[in-house]
Amino acid sequence: MTEVTGVEERLGAREERILLDLVATYIRGRGPVSSRALAERSPEGLSSATVRSVLARLEDLGYLHQPHSVSGRIPTDLAYRTFAASILKEETGRPVHPSREEVERLAEDGTLSGVARAISGRLSDSARLLAFAATPPLDEMRLRSCDLVALSPERVLFVLVSQAGQVTERVLRSPRPVGADTLRWCANFLTETFAGCTLPEIRRRLAREVEVERERCGQEIASALEMVAPCFTEAPADRGLYWEGAPWLLESSVLEEGVDAIRILLRTLERKTRLLELLEALHTADRPVRVVLGEDWGDPQVRTLAMVVAPFGGPTSGRGYVGIVGPRPMPYDTAIPAVRNASVLATLAAEALE
């Protein structure tokens, strides 16, 4: 969805240089770019006529559009993809080394949710765009500990903590009062038996372990474990989604892309399911930073917006995502490095929690 296929075969070196210069110029000025403006900055000293000829070919290939016969050209989605691909290529192999203080500050909350909230705020401030972070789904996390606390004779609070510090709580109802000693025993048993396991691994073993404990410790213990079982078998696969910087969407450069697009985007963030499905579809291990624009969104109403996104996470925390959303002509030369830096920093913070 991000990479431009066949660019090298379709464009010569001169054509690509002129195209990239035009896209960069359009992003800075937000108006049609003329052949004269490009010729004046040409390192080869090209004439306006030569540049005009190249622009005509680029338009024929679908990279440019000329709104009016007497105006300059503006980029199409294909041109933005090519421009973004050139930035991604430059970013490949660039070392990113956040300081220890940065990592500790991001992880100071002690939870993966805290990391997601902090990195979205940090990224929004640096990119001056709406930024978001999605935590890994609970199914991908590994168990650190469990706790059971009696709230009333028939209500019990179940607390699950992942190795990355993600906390999930659920109030359970028991058909009969459960003693504090039984709850403590069950919490210790679950922690000792399943620490380091993922939820799918726990689900596969839990029923068998309950039957073993029924024979070994009696019905009261087995009933308490059966009460807790739905917390693992029916645990939500949902992610936490945090975002900061919505006011940046009110900037004039974003509003030019259409109020309807912004409204749809905010609704997508609130409902989050569609966005999370898109993030999962985007992920490939060999291309960690991706750019989404145009038809990638799967919704024509937001095709005028763009998203730069990258995964983050540690070996036991699962895979989350961090990214920014803005106008299609966003400053990719700063947005892509900012997202990559945020991805590395959030990954180190997640690993520090494990």
Structural description of this entry:
This protein has 354 residues and is an alpha+beta fold. It has 3 domains: 82 residues, Arc Repressor Mutant, subunit A (Orthogonal Bundle), CATH 1.10.10.10; 154 residues, GAF domain (Beta-Lactamase, 2-Layer Sandwich), CATH 3.30.450.40; 92 residues, Heat-inducible transcription repressor hrca homolog, domain 3 (Enolase-like, domain 1), CATH 3.30.390. Helix content is 49%, strand content 16%. It is built from 15 helices and 10 strands. Strands 7-3-10-9-8 form a 5-stranded antiparallel beta sheet, sandwiched between helices. A 3-stranded antiparallel beta sheet has the order 4-5-6. Strands 1-2 form a two-stranded antiparallel ribbon. α8 packs across α10. 40% of the residues are buried. The N terminus is likely disordered.
